[in-house]
Amino acid sequence: MANSKLQAFWNHPAGPKTIHFWAPTFKWGLTIANILDSATPPEKLSYPQQSVLACSGLIWTRYGTVIIPSILVLQKNWNFVSVNFALSVTAMYQLSRKIQHDLSIKNQEVAVVEEE
To answer: 3-class DSSP state for residue 51?
Structure first.
């Protein structure tokens, strides 16, 4: 039973013998790095970088639900879809942290100016 599942995974159109497996698998590194950046102070985060990651993740998530690795087999590449969705979620979280931090700094500056 386990051998047949392993063999099916190995021979799948999006299995380890194809780029359809390895590209999303290595892209998990970006998602993991974004998760680890949750400990980074928000002032060190980059708007352009996180915006590109969020947009890229959303676009490729949508694209991943449309494309099929092989015309002969009607199966989606769920590794591809899930990594891009996770990437967009983590990037949007980082963007929200950055925005909240920048707004709090501006509010503090406005309060200091009003006091003077």
So the answer is: helix
**pLDDT number for residue 72:** 47
Residue 28: exposure state from Cβ atoms within 10 A (0-12, 13-18, ≥19): middle
Q: Does pLDDT of 8 surpass 90?
A: no
CA dist 33 and 7 (Å) reads: 32
| Residues facing 73 on adjacent strands | 70
Average pLDDT of the chain to the nearest whole number: 87
pLDDT at 45: 94
Query: Taking the model in full, what pTM does it have?
Result: 0.80
Pairs from 57-66 (Cβ < 8 Å, separation ≥ 24): 57/84, 57/85, 57/86, 57/87, 57/88, 57/89, 57/91, 58/84, 58/88, 60/84, 61/85, 61/88
* Burial of 107 per CB tally in 10 Å (0-12, 13-18, 19+): exposed
